[in-house]
Design a protein that fits this description.
A five-stranded mixed beta sheet has the order 2-1-5-3-4, with helices on both faces. The chain has a five-stranded antiparallel beta sheet with strand order 8-9-14-10-11, covered by helices on one side. By secondary structure, it is of the alpha+beta class. The radius of gyration is 23 Å and the shape is globular. It folds into three domains: 135 residues, Ubiquitin-like (UB roll) (Roll); 91 residues, DNA polymerase, domain 1; 247 residues, Uridine Diphospho-n-acetylenolpyruvylglucosamine Reductase, domain 3 (2-Layer Sandwich). A hairpin with a 2-residue loop joins strand 8 and strand 9.
Length: 483
Amino acid sequence: MTRFILNDTLVESTATPGTVVLDIVRYHQQLKGTKIGCREGDCGACTVLVGELTAEGVEYKSMTSCLLALANVEGKHIVTVEGLNMEKLSPVQQAMVDESGTQCGFCTPGFVVSLSGCCMTREKVTEDLAVRAIDGNICRCTGYKSIERAATSLAAQLAAKDVQDPIGWSVQNGFLPSYFAGITDRLQAMKTDVTRSNNEQPSTSNGIPLSGGTDLYVQKHDTMHHAPVRSIFNDEALKGIRIEGDQCIIGGAATAADLMNSAELKELLPQLEKHLLLVSSTSIRNMGTLAGNFVNASPIGDLTAMFIALDSTITLTTSDTPGMTRSLANESRSIKLKELYQGYKQLDKSATELLTAVRFTVPSKNTRFHFEKVSKRTYLDIASVNSAIRLDIDGDSIREAHVSAGGVAPVPKYLANTSTFLAGKPISNDTVRAAIEVMNEEVAPISDARGTADYKRLLLRQLFFAHFMELFPERFTLNELVA
């Protein structure tokens, strides 16, 4: 049985843990405001808010319920558009009306839910943050400017929000229904029951290990839907970001949003937030985990490209015993992330191993890191080609280099020859142009729906140029590089 609060109601569901929350909401609870759109996490019509008890109170995040497993919401608060309704329109709903932000209305509930998350965040709500909150929601008939105006209007209304107690302030000022004020106590009362791991329940102990599931449910919907799964998404032993000596260590269940919000990572990699904004949408970043991205083994995985270039090491832990992921007491081994990929969707990993952590050497003041990506849309899209680079420099020379590329091989590609070539070379136009020749010899793109092989080679060349132009703007211009 899975227990959670749905809007103002306690739900005790006996559905199989792999059932997606979208179906629980619509078909089990008959709340039809949450819409079925793409079932791939792209359109945002099924967006819900998921509230989780933390030391600071309840933290809410937007998630696409079409990819959200029931097992991952145990002990949490799920908010649909019905759970935001009051006697009169909320300021979020009113802003959509005032700015003519809805026509057919199909996408409107998702937009309202995503924007309502701004009322609950402990961040100061700026226009940029409000617009970013709806980056995973698609409208096919209204045009985005009216919706962006609604977001801007909301940001202005939330300027006075108490960021220390956003829920209390929002309830008092009519942004949220009054029942929100009691959710913390209600989740706390459930805590004893819900802190048990799904791994310890007989019905799920032998199930499929499930983290965020953001691509697994797209690729294997028929297999995963209603499947017995054991959730590792909520396992605290697999989370966290910490610095130990010269190593940055990140738990495998850390999400892309965790990376983006980490003060430690922002200090180490100042451009990381900018890079991560190119990775999917807010609602997917709140769900997709680091380990899930790695073991999914997509040749164009954005996080994979970044962490290969960081020369990361991963920890694989045998977990064939239910409940052992909490203590990580089983046998572990470490390998370089770049060595995980043996062929298309083939990994140096057994079925009983979990990717429990990733680590990389902390960048120094002489380290430069950069990520680039080309896709049909700037945001919320799969890359045609992506690339990342880490350079450790010594004066005017490159002491050590690590370069990765996606979309140019059957696997996320570590460009070993290019990296070796760059080491010891001066930071110059000649070096970059010569490295391009080496790089062309070690990639093997194929023509597919995202472009021809020649086009992908061209894209990778341009991304490689972009790395150096961004990292050393005083040294490089595109005209000089291609001359």
